[in-house]
């Protein structure tokens, strides 16, 4: 297969998406003079809030590069599915508009996966690190999120403010620094998320160290790493963690832990028996 011409592919994609739509499904009049299936270019332009000439030039592959706002408007006008919307953004070399509404409920299939990952401690979080699902092993190793009020089931908040966690981490200073840097990264990606902003403000008000680290403006994505725990039941446990982002639910992150060495695995076996 030869290399795809992105401009031609964009034009063809827009035409085929337009032609598959039924005007009646969008509440548009059906005139007997229609010679082609689907919507007219004029109707797409009106639905997207752009000029007819612009739609014509896009469908004729005349080298336009629409802005992210125009791509979003076209995706809405053409009633694109999420995967089609992502494809359109990819063709136009634009970044999709990110919704700041965080997932509040775990995807059923991902929640089952968290349970199926036993005996590895695992949890499912959103971009704020609100904990949406966790297995028993996660609760035994860190904290039982089910015993916390729903509004406090946040991994960052627990790490930074829960008194029980202050003695858990052997290298607490590093964990706190990385946690604050992760919060800043999430905040920059979701500047309109007021719940996230309130979480950051509360953590900074509760702990001077958090406030100091926030002012340093460090950024970091904590997607992979290690932690050494001083567990009250089994002593020192070193764990490694990996964060995975599902394609179908990109705002739900799967965090999986495993023992970092044989001694830690033995301790986990005792803890989780």
UniProtKB/TrEMBL annotation:
Domain HTH cro/C1-type as annotated: residue spans: 30-85
Annotated InterPro entries: Cro/C1-type_HTH (IPR001387), Lambda_DNA-bd_dom_sf (IPR010982), MLTR_LBD (IPR041413)
The name this protein goes by in its record: Transcriptional regulator
Gene Ontology molecular-function annotations: DNA binding
Domain of life: Bacteria
One Pfam entry name: HTH_31
């Amino acid at each position: 297969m030869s290399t795809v011409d992105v401009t031609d592919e964009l034009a063809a994609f827009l035409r085929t998406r337009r032609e598959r739509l039924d005007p009646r499904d969008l509440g548009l009049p059906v005139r007997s003079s229609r010679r082609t299936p689907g919507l007219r270019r004029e109707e797409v332009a009106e639905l997207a809030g752009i000029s007819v000439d612009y739609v014509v030039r896009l469908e004729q592959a005349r080298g336009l590069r629409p802005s992210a706002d125009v791509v979003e408007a076209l995706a809405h006008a053409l009633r694109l599915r999420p995967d089609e919307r992502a494809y359109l953004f990819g063709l136009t070399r634009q970044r999709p508009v990110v919704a700041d509404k965080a997932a509040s409920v775990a995807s059923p299939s991902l929640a089952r996966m968290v349970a199926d990952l036993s005996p590895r401690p695992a949890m499912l979080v959103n971009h704020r690190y609100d904990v949406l699902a966790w297995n028993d092993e996660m609760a035994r190793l860190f904290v039982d999120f089910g015993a916390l009020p729903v509004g406090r089931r946040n991994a960052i908040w627990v790490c930074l403010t829960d008194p029980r966690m202050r003695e858990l981490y052997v290298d607490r200073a590093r964990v706190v620094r990385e946690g604050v840097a992760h919060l800043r990264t999430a905040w920059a990606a979701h500047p309109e998320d007021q719940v996230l902003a309130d979480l950051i403000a509360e953590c900074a008000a509760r702990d001077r160290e958090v406030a100091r680290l926030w002012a340093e403006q460090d950024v970091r994505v904590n997607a992979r790493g290690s932690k050494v725990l001083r567990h009250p039941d089994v002593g020192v446990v070193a764990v490694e963690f990996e964060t995975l982002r599902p394609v179908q639910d990109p705002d739900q992150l799967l965090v999986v832990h495993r023992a970092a060495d044989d001694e830690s695995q033995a301790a986990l076996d005792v803890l989780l028996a």
